[in-house]
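Appendix C reproduces, verbatim, an entry submitted by the partner laboratory led by Prof. M.T., so that reviewers can inspect both the input and the predicted structure.
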Amino acid sequence: MSKSINLGIQIVPKSKTLDSYALVDKAIDVIQKSGVKYEVTPFETVMEGPQDKLMAVALQAQEAVLEAGADEVLVYYRMQIRKGDDVTMEEKTSKFKINP
């Protein structure tokens, strides 16, 4: 079984005629439908899972933005990969979450 990593992706679409937020929503829709664990933040979406799966989802997300009419996209990746062990979003953020 592949170990889990964290992959942050920021897709910045460029279009002379289309709303950039609507284009970004196309990328997020791909991520939501992919079945991977994810969290949307104001600047990027962070995914958790095997690296090969996350990279495939990231490629599909950027293609969705281009297919939706973007003239071009800037794509920024950040990854955390741990030798021999999983990386989870929870380990980094759980202490900051408010319990209802």
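The beta strands are 4-14, 37-40, 45-50, 72-80. Additional entries are available on request from the coordinating office.
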